[in-house]
């Protein structure tokens, strides 16, 4: 699903948000692929207790070799994903708070620059993780001296992680989402007042739906990342092992968050839904669904076609009419 999201948004890319969501989908692809390669083989290898049997196991050797290179990439993708959520939230904040300046600030080019910056900073931040583990002479993965260093564990793995991955991005997301939710609620109230006067536009309504989608995404992101965040605090301050199953549970929550984004896109984004169906070869389903709508016929059709239905023009209505009455 993450791959499809990336392909669909790569084809769309008509707005700054779609560029950001394309980048987010790519981070999700890396994160989910890494999880599939690492965690099943790790679980299978952990069931083999005899060292001699582990050294003969193909699964264990696969896990050890993959972990050295793939696990740091998953950490980079995780950091990139977090800050892309921040970028999505900022984009929606600009859209609802500065609608005029948004045309200058929130452009596809600027979003692409933001994604490049996020990727570079995430890679630099997680660069030390490539030097945390290595393979011994038997091919088994072992921690390096860097990973055993107490200062490194406390300062980098805990304090910097908490600041860079949790406190700063979460604070930005929660604060801006509070403003966004308030403004969207006011906009919907204004729409209820003006709808009888038909002052609302489809573009404004679509913009609000996209904003609601982004808010739902970031809310689910916060909820799914609470367990991994708590793990770091428990491991840092607990002197005894506490409920070890919380670690695989938190990993599952992160994967669920990455995999659930496409479902959110399909629910809230009509353009994404249509593009996804087209990518799957379901163009006939789209046409059938659109053709099921019946619009009323008015006399204005015959005078220059001022009123045109999204489904049928005057010509095809005429061809379907059994009496052949002119529009």
TrEMBL record:
Keywords: Membrane, Transmembrane, Transmembrane helix. It comes from the Eukaryota. GO terms for cellular component: membrane. Pfam families: 7TM_GPCR_Srw. The keyword Transmembrane helix applies. The chain crosses the membrane at residues 20-42, 62-90, 111-131, 156-181, 210-228, 248-268. Residues 1-265 form the G-protein coupled receptors family 1 profile domain. Its main location: membrane. One of its GO terms (molecular function) is G protein-coupled peptide receptor activity. It is found in: Membrane. InterPro entries: 7TM_GPCR_serpentine_rcpt_Srw, GPCR-Ligand_Int, GPCR_Rhodpsn, GPCR_Rhodpsn_7TM. PANTHER family: FMRFAMIDE RECEPTOR-RELATED (PTHR46641), G-PROTEIN COUPLED RECEPTORS FAMILY 1 PROFILE DOMAIN-CONTAINING PROTEIN (PTHR46641:SF24). This is G-protein coupled receptors family 1 profile domain-containing protein. It comes from Caenorhabditis brenneri (Nematode worm). The lineage of its organism: Eukaryota, Metazoa, Ecdysozoa, Nematoda, Chromadorea.
């Amino acid at each position: 699903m993450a791959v499809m999201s990336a392909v669909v948004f790569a084809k769309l890319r008509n707005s700054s948000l779609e560029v950001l969501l394309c980048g987010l989908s790519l981070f999700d692809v890396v994160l989910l692929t890494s999880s599939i390669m690492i965690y099943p083989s790790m679980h299978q290898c952990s069931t083999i207790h005899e060292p001699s049997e582990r050294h003969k196991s193909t699964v264990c050797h696969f896990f050890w070799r993959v972990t050295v290179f793939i696990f740091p990439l998953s950490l980079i993708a995780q950091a990139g994903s977090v800050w892309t959520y921040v970028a999505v939230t900022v984009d929606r904040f600009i859209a609802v708070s500065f609608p005029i300046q948004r045309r200058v600030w929130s452009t596809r080019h600027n979003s692409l620059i933001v994604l490049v910056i996020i990727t570079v900073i995430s890679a630099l931040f997680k660069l030390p993780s490539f030097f945390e583990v290595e393979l011994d002479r038997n091919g088994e993965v072992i921690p390096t001296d860097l990973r055993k260093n107490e200062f490194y564990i406390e300062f980098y793995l805990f304090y910097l992680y908490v600041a860079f991955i949790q406190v700063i991005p979460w604070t930005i997301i929660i604060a801006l989402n509070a403003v966004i939710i308030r403004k969207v609620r006011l906009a919907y109230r204004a729409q209820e007042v003006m709808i009888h006067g038909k002052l609302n536009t489809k573009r404004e309504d679509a913009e609000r739906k996209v904003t609601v989608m982004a808010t739902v995404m970031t809310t689910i992101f916060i909820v799914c990342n609470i367990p991994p965040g708590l793990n770091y605090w428990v491991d840092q301050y607990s002197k005894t092992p506490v409920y070890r199953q919380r670690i695989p549970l938190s990993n599952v929550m992160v994967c669920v968050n990455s995999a659930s984004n496409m479902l959110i896109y399909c629910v809230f984004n009509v353009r994404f839904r249509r593009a996804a169906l087209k990518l799957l070869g379901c163009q006939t389903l789209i046409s059938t669904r659109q053709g099921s709508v019946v619009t009323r016929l008015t006399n204005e059709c015959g005078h220059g076609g001022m009123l045109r239905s999204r489904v049928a023009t005057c010509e095809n209505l005429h061809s379907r009419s059994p009496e052949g009455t002119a529009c």
